[in-house]
Design brief:
The complex is a heterotetramer, with 2 copies of chain A (343 residues) and 2 copies of chain C (336 residues). Chain A is α/β, with parallel strands linked by helices and 343 residues long. Chain A is 52% helix and 11% strand. Chain C has 2 domains: 198 residues, Thiamin diphosphate (ThDP)-binding fold, Pyr/PP domains (Rossmann fold), CATH 3.40.50.970; 123 residues, Rossmann fold (3-Layer(aba) Sandwich), CATH 3.40.50.920. The chains are: A alpha/beta (343), C alpha/beta (336). Bound molecules: thiamine diphosphate (2 copies) and magnesium ion (2 copies). One magnesium ion binds next to β6 of chain A.
Chain lengths: 343, 343, 336, 336
Amino acid sequence: MAPDAWMLYGLMYKSRVFEEAVRQIWQAGRISGEMHLGLGEEAIAAGIIPQLVEGDALALDHRGTPAMLMRGVAPLALLREFMGSPDGLCAGMGGHMHLFAPEKLAASSGIVGAAGPAAAGFGLAAQMLRPNCVSVAFFGDGATSAGMLLESFNLAVVWKLPVLFVCKDNDWAITTPAETAVGGNLLARARAFGMRAEEVDGRDALAVWQAASEALRHARAGNGPVFLWAHCIHLEGHFLGDGLLDMFRRPVYSLRKRVWPMVKGFFHPQGAAWGERLAAARQIVGQVLSIQNQTSPQGDPLLCLRPALERENARRLADLEASIRDEIQKVVSQAVALEGNMA
Amino acid sequence: MAPDAWMLYGLMYKSRVFEEAVRQIWQAGRISGEMHLGLGEEAIAAGIIPQLVEGDALALDHRGTPAMLMRGVAPLALLREFMGSPDGLCAGMGGHMHLFAPEKLAASSGIVGAAGPAAAGFGLAAQMLRPNCVSVAFFGDGATSAGMLLESFNLAVVWKLPVLFVCKDNDWAITTPAETAVGGNLLARARAFGMRAEEVDGRDALAVWQAASEALRHARAGNGPVFLWAHCIHLEGHFLGDGLLDMFRRPVYSLRKRVWPMVKGFFHPQGAAWGERLAAARQIVGQVLSIQNQTSPQGDPLLCLRPALERENARRLADLEASIRDEIQKVVSQAVALEGNMA
Amino acid sequence: MRKMSFSEAIDDALGQGMAADPRVLLLGEDVQGLHGGLFLRFGRQRVRNTPISEAAFLGAAVAASMAGLRPVAEIMLVDFLAVAVDALLNHASKLETFSGGRWQAPLVVRTACGGGYGDGGQHEQSLWGWLAHIPGLSVVVPSTPADAGGLMLAALELGSPVVFMEHKLISSIWLDFLGSGGRDTVTFDVPPDGEHGRVPDRWQPIPLGQALLRKKGSDVTIVTLGVGVHRALQASAELEKQGLSAGVLDLRSVSPLDKAAVCQEVSRTGRLLVVDEDYEGFGLSGELAAIVLEAGISCKYARVCTQTTIPFARRLEDETLPNVARIGAACRKLAG
Amino acid sequence: MRKMSFSEAIDDALGQGMAADPRVLLLGEDVQGLHGGLFLRFGRQRVRNTPISEAAFLGAAVAASMAGLRPVAEIMLVDFLAVAVDALLNHASKLETFSGGRWQAPLVVRTACGGGYGDGGQHEQSLWGWLAHIPGLSVVVPSTPADAGGLMLAALELGSPVVFMEHKLISSIWLDFLGSGGRDTVTFDVPPDGEHGRVPDRWQPIPLGQALLRKKGSDVTIVTLGVGVHRALQASAELEKQGLSAGVLDLRSVSPLDKAAVCQEVSRTGRLLVVDEDYEGFGLSGELAAIVLEAGISCKYARVCTQTTIPFARRLEDETLPNVARIGAACRKLAG
Ligand SMILES: Cc1ncc(C[n+]2csc(CCOP(=O)(O)OP(=O)(O)O)c2C)c(N)n1
Ligand SMILES: Cc1ncc(C[n+]2csc(CCOP(=O)(O)OP(=O)(O)O)c2C)c(N)n1
Ligand SMILES: [Mg+2]
Ligand SMILES: [Mg+2]
């Protein structure tokens, strides 16, 4: 089945507009605690989730919003959940890291790596109860260092479970670059466990679709798990209020809040030799500079697909985008109005 | 440095004679609980441990006896420990799975996989406090499914720790054959984490020595960890009183104790289809048959080295063996006498 | 009425549950060998060996239970749960709350626990109080074959996560596997009524959270569970000769805890002795003190628990675990 | 005397300890960024980022401590310790016993805990009672900057494993990181005396196991720790206006537990209220009941704890965690 680029773009655009609205609502203080958005990884979800059928399951990490949305969970239910409302998806009990949609067999967890065992378990249930169904795990590059995820690779292989393990590699785990935390090569790692594995440009929804389509066929046919290594960026840094991005966005605030303690440490009379201190300082500066890549439009999966659609039919594109913006705008108004009613 | 075959054989023979004595004492009921011996994996310890220097560390699993012995821990202290005596290596508080020799930086654990993090930590201490020193982890094929061990591979790589990870692959984890539990290929797995890795015949002490010698050079030079995949057998099954081995050794006992419940299950009116039940039965029979490999003299590391030494100097060999037997015999008498004194 | 060993009873009840409900399956390390009767009866799909990956297979069991299966995941020894407890602490036990009450994890974790056979401190822990600390988790600790089977059936039917604990000293399968290793040269202080006993012809579920008064007593109430029940009964029999009447209440499950039964007995005798093989501090023994105080019952209180890491040496181990002598002495002191 | 925030105090004391002893190092996820002052002062060898491999790096820290280093291993949030608790339960805490007293693991596990800022039930647990259940492990929970620094120094010098817990609501680094994310549109009920305060010019170790009477009281003794101390003080101030005198005892460490101080205060007032942000059952609140009963103190007892998985919704969360209203009501009921 060939992917419908318009449909994929629509899913991504909706997710983007929705999460941007979430950002504003969070910024306004109406959502408490952390907020990890999926801005930048929409193409991975969009390339895979429309290929799922009833009975397929989803094991998500702390960035579950795009996947839940694309799987058909109502944006209002999500937003009300983030706002901690009794009418939210989970009655306000879970929050954005703990989204659960039982009728869609979709579950998330804020524990890094937990998507691995969860997907294996969903895969086991599929194998025993729902022939031809699969489960999909979404997790980051950082999670590939988590023992339970690695154990799950092995378990899925020896039990030939119908699982698609999808690594959304954005090159960072909070402030830790993947190249300093992930040994070797992830494709080789998955293959060494005896798993089929493919690498794909995670900004390109069509490429993800293709790769996922073959992977899903493999898994549905009972040939065991597949690993998909999809590269992407996180446009909003690790979470809203990301300290590294703040260095550019709010330099004065950052100087006082983050740089000043470092300067004090750097010049403290007792400590390491100057060479050591300089190396540490250089490392921090290097990280701050390299974080810019994360916000470069080149990495934006929407911009990867949009020009082609615009060339194809600019009018249709504008209409599509407008209608999605309208829809989300309505959801936001509704959510805010409900909040008013409650108070 | 070329290995001294006589020295290696002496170490292995001493370990063998000692553990055979332990078996008798356990059988006589003077040692409580489980007893995992290293019978069959002596060549792996012998090929590596004599190459260690002061400051090197050992992280052992539930079969720590040969390694402790070869590292110079007194056999009497070990035996008294197994007997739970206040004059044992750990004052009788640890037992055979929890052997600790602080002055030799040698520690064991009964938790499968724990040798991985322990070796990483010892390696970290070496890196920071004892230049050119290394740590060695010994663990089984079963442990390669343990998340913490896999995490340790990665940690050791990204921190370039001087660790030698040694997998003593005996093809079994209790009653579970490695081919049903270990996905893919272990050499590829280690390499995929970015680690140097070699496969070696773990019955051949000289081959192990060679492989370990290069590996240790690599690690001591600060080039990071090395994985050694050493194949061996466990001559005594998983532990003393192993149920699979008992099928041959004590068929009548086994019939009553183990086979009878299976027969009842097999013929129970409610259960799986006959095909399923037959497959299960075939699997058990297959395992019982294949366990014979584990006791085949072909796999015995002592017999792998002995003929050459006998050809070289039969007299010297006889003397060596006799003196070791004497030494261990004395240790056993002493241990038993001490027990008498205590009572 | 049949007679059965403790370990047989558990497998028998589990077998009844598996026959009745095709969604029930058993998975864990070496379960095909350890529970060979079930393996040859239900085959490879429903009795599954796992790699030594407790975190993965326990986490998988949680998700499988969410997706329609009824897994019984065996963690060989509860000590090993330490590498996988995230699946219980952060996932199974929290699912119902997190999902706003819309999703459940009907999972049984079967695990062997307890000491008294010389296997050392990393293999003989009890940890039931440690697990019961987690809201949303039930913890069951039977002391007889009849209870073991009935509670297993109830655990299978409960619909939320249960840890089912099998004390090795009364479980002949485990004791043979880890303690004697087929030897007849070792003996352990196995309570016969725990190891073997009458069981119903067909298992009926025994609801969780119902303590059972094993013996009435007027001077002291001993609240306990697992092997502690038998130790307490023995101590009570000896105390009786000395004119001291000690009742024995078998909790059967740590969570839910039968607060009413505890309060009723303790308010009758005015003296509470907790006998708990789990570690003393911050666990079950303290919780029982809190329960009686909360109920406004004024009583004398003492506890006989495991206070330190369990020593390997058999003699020291016996002194460390709650034993008849310590229980008797504590009762006399409470009553004196 | 200097003034400092709670989180600064911990890093400052740790810095003093690192300067004094080259064996001390800090490792954990993102510690180079989270503790940037220490990173730029001590460099990459002694402030080490780790992969997200808690089991490996905590286990490694245990072994490193056995081999001569003095690691401070940071587990970001104590909730995540669930994937690595084997290193504490089966290794660090048991080493001294297992080795017959010949080997120690002088390790500090630094970890953020506690709720009140809307991050959900997998990120806001306390778990100090859960950890204190393990024999051989010390658990420290400071409530002020001065205590935090002094206790950190003591933990570094102790020579056996310590879990040092940093409550996020009074730790501005963590609260900014996880709660506000740099926003000024959210506020949390942060106790000012916990968040900021006077500290000594040079840190001196504060021995573990010494509770501090924050306020004398004659009617009720509130025993608590961490943020609970400030909630209790506030409730006590309000009760005072109503003519009820509630003392506040700050435990400062859960294990070792200052039994003498608890018993002394409770025997004076005859009323014990435990305020404990950790889960209610089978934990600290029960242990305190056991302690007073064991000491033969007859008292009235109540507890205000966290009874369920912590809800995400801020309002429900505030109702679930021990708050001033619940503490006040419990005091009045105890005294009434
Ligand atoms: C077991 C565990 N350890 C640490 C954390 C804290 N944490 C949350 S997200 C994160 C980084 C995850 O990185 P990655 O998997 O690459 O996902 P990304 O955020 O980059 O999408 C960390 C360390 C956690 N939630 N769980
Ligand atoms: C975490 C954990 N899970 C399970 C066990 C029980 N157990 C002890 S040894 C063993 C098998 C280990 O197999 P392997 O690593 O291959 O070592 P071998 O015994 O074959 O030498 C198992 C499952 C344990 N000790 N720890
Ligand atoms: Mg990432
Ligand atoms: Mg093996």
